Amino acid sequence: MRLGELELQIVPDGTFRLDGGAMFGVVPKVLWEKKLRPDDRNRVPVATNCLLVKGKDFVAVVDAGLGEKWEDKTREIYGVEHETTLVQSLSRHGVAPEDVDAVVLSHLHFDHSGAATEIRDGRLAPAFPRAAVYVQASELEHARRPNERDRASYFENNWEPLVAAGRLETVSGEREIRPGVTVLPVRGHSEGMQGVRIESGGRTAFFFSDSLPTTAHVPVPWIMSFDLYPVELIQIKKRLTDQAAREGWLAIFVHDVNVPWGKIVDEVDGKRRVHPISLEAERFE
After folding, report:
1. For 222-261, how does the pLDDT look when each residue is reduced to its tens digit (9 = 90+)?
2. 269 pLDDT exceeds 90?
3. Cα separation of 64 and 102, whole Å?
4. Chain centroid to CA 257
5. Superfamily of domain 2-276 in the CATH hierarchy
6. E strands along the chain, which residues?
7. CA 2, CA 18: separation in Å to the nearest integer?
8. How far is CA 238 from CA 106, 215, 244, 259, in A?
């Protein structure tokens, strides 16, 4: 899809499963199960919708999914399935790992940073050998010293090899990392999560990451129990979704298995919904 002078594509890295109650926090199951049907272990399907952004002089990838560095036991717990990998998804759009010069990690949880590194010749190495990998400095600091509540979400083999190779670049606050591609803090889900605003030709796309993981989470109170700072997240989420609806943004939903992107629209009945946009659409208007 074209967004002004930029090309955007969804490049998934497989699927996994998380507890439905954890995905919807205080929302009762009788409500959320209408949106996502749980399996017999109360797990709901979760996508990893990474984003490819191609400009005139750059190739960027936003988020890095699950990766393939999984032990059998952990893979089974999370129901990890690689119907495709990030590298395979990129290949379908003519992009090889060495073509990528920028990778943005919204945060360092295992389902957003897993494919940033790989095992090569028996050793951990950057999966995108030429890319600068951008993360908020506060997120890296927290990932290295997580608390008991979120320790299980961080796997250091997803980022420390990047540090050792000189590929990880920390950002403090808002910054344009490539023409039209800006990272900005959206603290709430994690200590240092960042969203990605993409602008070209008078149009805007926004990668919400886990501040708005699926279309089911569009109602402001529908947040996850994983969120470290829920009240702060609600405030940020309301501000961003209000702006998205008002300005007609293309919203990217990182974990939605059915609708990876669409428009957030205020309907005449007063409800806020998402109008899906086809992956085959040639241009975002």
Report:
1. 999 999 999 999 999 999 999 999 999 999 999 999 999 9
2. no
3. 12
4. 13
5. Ribonuclease Z/Hydroxyacylglutathione hydrolase-like (3.60.15.10)
6. 2-3, 6-19, 43-54, 59-62, 102-104, 117-120, 123-126, 132-136, 168-171, 175-178, 181-185, 194-200, 203-207, 250-252, 261-266, 272-276
7. 33
8. 19, 14, 10, 20
- State residue 155 phi and psi, 5-degree precision: -115, 110
Domain boundaries, the chain: 2-276
pTM of the prediction? 0.97
Whether the CB-CB separation of 246 and 232 falls below 8 Å is answered with no
CA 104 to chain centre: 9
Considering just the CA atoms, what is the radius of gyration of the chain in Å?
A: 18
pLDDT average, residue stretch 127-148: 97
Q: What is the pLDDT of residues 199-227, one digit of tens each?
A: 999 999 999 999 999 999 999 999 999 99
Average pLDDT, the chain: 97
Residue 73 CB burial class (10 angstroms; 0-12, 13-18, ≥19): exposed
> 188 is written with which tokens?
């709430």
- 């993409």: which residue's tokens? 198
Return the pLDDT at 268: 84
C-alpha 173/C-alpha 234 separation (Å) is 19
Burial class (CB in 10 A: 0-12, 13-18, 19+), 39: exposed
Assess contact for 125 and 67: CB atoms under 8 A.
no
Tokens coding 211: 């501040």
Tens digit of pLDDT for each residue in 17-74? 999 999 999 999 999 999 999 999 999 999 999 999 999 999 999 999 999 999 999 9
